[in-house]
């Protein structure tokens, strides 16, 4: 039977946004969901798989670290997975030295070559950041206001140039505001109350969320091959790129993509940490991931390991769009798409690609839970009322 015929809603994209809505609409509202993804797997960019050679869980689309301050999101996801007590720590290699990230008191002491107390470090950085006087409104100004120019030039400028290939004065300040700066020796990458990696891997979360007879998942299906066959008034959730939905009619939004160079290495431990960043311009990759370290609780083989070097570049039309660049030109284009999206009947745009927002996983889940309550509960209540009235 044509799966569209019995669907109460079509959801495009089986990432965190689409899967959360599918799960809620099926479980709470008892509605039939048709969930499609053009990829051959569920999970969106959070998809992971066991590497065939080493058995190590590989994050296919780059390092995914779960963290959230949002207890509702945490409790929701814990229905589908347990979390390990993994706390991420980052490192950065600058001129042959390894420094802890995010920038903390240890980074400051090591970089400036002497011991600082927290108060001394604050005074030092305040002196270095005093060149920014107004409200910083781009990445460069924001970074200098947070850490001062010497640390900016060592750890941020080169990394950001490789990651975005866009003038840091054109990039939004929020991109760098993601990283904490600490005047203590606390060296965890995130401040969030809830953190950990899913005990059975990321993909298992999606398998459990979608394990419901009311959800039909079809993989390898592109929305644009179905679009003209959709029944009238079928609600659609679209989590693909918003500019692609409107056939780029308002212009192409800027996206970054990432190439991963995987390598199985004959050692039990290649770098001693999950992620090491390389901000210097003479190294072409931005970071090296070593997947085994995301799950220290597992007993992986000890004679081999798998790593990935990450290279960022502009996304062309056939590339996976990963990061919204959101430069000023993009903001103007996006405003036009937002207007078009608001006027598009029966279509709800969501997720990182559908809203052109640099969302973390917990924010995608949180936004989907909110949309469920504010958009889909009322929508299906209204359609139920209309069909009850029709039967009377
Ligand atoms: P996605 O996961 O991108 O899912 C969208 C899905 O829609 C995709 O599977 C796509 O194939 C499908 N789709 C698109 N167009 C179509 C179409 N036309 N037809 C059918 N299907 C379509 N977040 C964190 O919290 N922590 C991290 O450490 C972290 N690291 C990241 C590292 C990288 C390199 C990247 C790129 C992202 C990272 N994220 C991280 C962000 C995380 O990936 C997103 O928050 C999350 O994937 C958003 O879920 P989503 O459902 O909005 O989008
Ligand atoms: N960043 C940097 N140096 C680093 C790490 C991050 O300059 O060593 C900047 C860079 O601009 C990056 C942003 O901070 O895009 C956000 O970093 P994060 O690690 O959160 O990026 P993601 O994991 O999403 O790629």
Question: Could you please describe the fold and organization of this structure?
Answer:
With 392 residues, the protein is α/β, with parallel strands linked by helices. The chain contains 13 helices and 16 strands. A hairpin with a 2-residue loop joins strand 6 (90-94) and strand 7. It is globular, with a radius of gyration of 23 Å. It starts with a helix and ends with a helix. Flavin-adenine dinucleotide binds at residues 12-18, 36-39, 44-46, 61-65, 222-224, 239-240, 258, 322, 351-353, 359-362, 364.
Silhouette = globular
- Helix share of residues? 25-40%
Q: What is the distance, rounded to the nearest whole angstrom, between the alpha carbons of the first and last residues?
A: 29 Å
Q: SSE order, as H and E?
A: HEHEEEEHEEHHHHEHEHEHEEEEEHEHH
Strands ordered across the widest β-sheet: 7-6-12-13-14-11-15
Task: Outline the biggest β-sheet.
Answer: 7 strands, mixed
Bound molecules: flavin-adenine dinucleotide, uridine-5'-diphosphate
Cα Rg: 23 Å
The total count of strands amounts to 16
What share of residues are in beta strands?
15-25%
Low-pLDDT parts are: none
Rounded mean pLDDT score: 95
Can you count the helices? 13
* Class inferred from helices and paired strands: alpha/beta
């Amino acid at each position: 039977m044509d799966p569209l015929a019995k669907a109460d809603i079509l959801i495009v994209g089986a990432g965190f946004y689409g899967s959360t809505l599918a799960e809620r609409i099926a479980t709470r509202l008892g509605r039939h969901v048709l969930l499609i993804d053009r990829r051959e797997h569920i999970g969106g960019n959070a998809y992971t798989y066991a590497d065939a050679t080493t058995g190590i869980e590989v994050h296919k689309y780059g390092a995914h670290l779960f963290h959230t301050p949002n207890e509702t999101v945490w409790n929701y996801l814990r229905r589908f997975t347990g979390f390990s007590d993994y706390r991420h720590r980052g490192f950065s290699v600058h001129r042959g030295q390894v420094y802890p990230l995010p920038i903390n008191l240890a980074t400051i002491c090591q970089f400036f070559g002497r011991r600082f107390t927290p108060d001394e470090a604050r005074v030092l950085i305040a002196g270095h950041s005093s060149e920014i006087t107004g409200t910083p409104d781009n990445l460069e100004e924001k970074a200098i206001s947070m850490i001062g120019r010497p640390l900016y030039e060592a750890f941020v400028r080169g990394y950001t140039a490789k990651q975005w290939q866009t003038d840091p004065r054109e990039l939004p300040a929020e991109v760098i505001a993601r990283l904490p700066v600490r005047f203590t020796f606390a060296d965890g990458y995130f401040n969030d109350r809830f953190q950990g990696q899913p005990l059975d891997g990321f993909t298992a979360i999606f398998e459990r969320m979608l394990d419901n007879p009311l959800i039909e998942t079809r993989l390898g299906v592109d929305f644009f091959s179905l679009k003209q066959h959709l029944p009238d008034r079928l609600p659609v959730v679209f989590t693909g790129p918003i500019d692609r939905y409107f056939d780029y009619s308002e212009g192409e939004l800027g996206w970054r993509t990432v190439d991963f160079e995987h390598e199985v290495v004959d050692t039990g431990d290649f770098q001693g940490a999950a992620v090491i960043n390389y901000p210097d311009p003479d190294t072409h990759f931005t970071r090296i991931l070593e997947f085994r370290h995301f799950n220290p609780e597992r007993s992986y083989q000890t004679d081999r390991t798998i790593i990935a070097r990450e290279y960022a570049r502009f996304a062309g039309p056939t590339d996976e769009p990963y990061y919204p660049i959101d430069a000023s030109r993009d903001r103007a284009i996006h405003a036009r798409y937002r207007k078009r999206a608001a006027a598009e009947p029966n279509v709800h745009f969501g997720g990182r690609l559908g809203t052109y927002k640099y969302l973390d996983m917990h924010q995608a889940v949180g936004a989907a839970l909110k949309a469920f309550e504010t958009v889909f509960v009322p929508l299906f209540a209204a359609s139920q009322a209309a069909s009850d009235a029709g039967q009377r």
